[in-house]
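Quick start: read one record
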Amino acid sequence: MERLQKVLAQANIASRRKAEEMISAGRVKVNGKVITELGFKVSRKDDIEVDGKQIIMADLCYYLLNKPTGVVSTADDDKKRKTVLDLLTEEDRATRVYPVGRLDFDTAGLLLLTNDGELTQILTHPGHEVEKEYLVRVDGIIIRKTIKKLREGVIIDDDYRAVPRAVRLVELDKGHQSTLLSITLVEGRNKQVRKMIEAIGHKVKKLTRVRYDFLTLEGVERGTYRPLKIHEIKRLYAHKPLKMS
């Protein structure tokens, strides 16, 4: 048994907060009866309607994808470019999963896909500070003084100070005049890593997200994916804040 608002969120009807508003407004019926109680619990055997339309309680699916560059992180694209859903089998596409957040068109690496609206909200809420680690190949040699400046935070988007959770020097390639850095963020502004590197006077040559919270790309080749394990899903849900009594 699950709370009605949670089921509505998981069915992608609305966020949990919006679902609660819909219930309070008398827009939701369970087995033909209007429900306004927010703590009301339902099972998969129950018939649920929102504004007179029956909702389908889809099986929840969770995938870890190793996204290639040149693929967009959307369910569909008006420019007809290849999307991350095109990398799934036809059967898995039918579960109507969608990306948790985004990776830029020219950024590769770890991307989660799910049809669990509640978990998506938990992971993308800025207050929950879910770590994302990126390996970034930078054009030019970056000295320690510049790395220190990056760690302390740099201004992007005119007036926003972007402060990473961590910055680590991985490799200096003097022969090719490039630097490999590991940058960990707990936020996700548009093209944030690229803008941070530009703010210290360099350009990104290659960018890959290698970690999302505790999840890594181990065993997942570029352009392929795997389902998350039960214990991994539960661990991701641990970011959900505890309710105060």
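The chain has three domains: 2-54, 62-127+217-237, 131-212.
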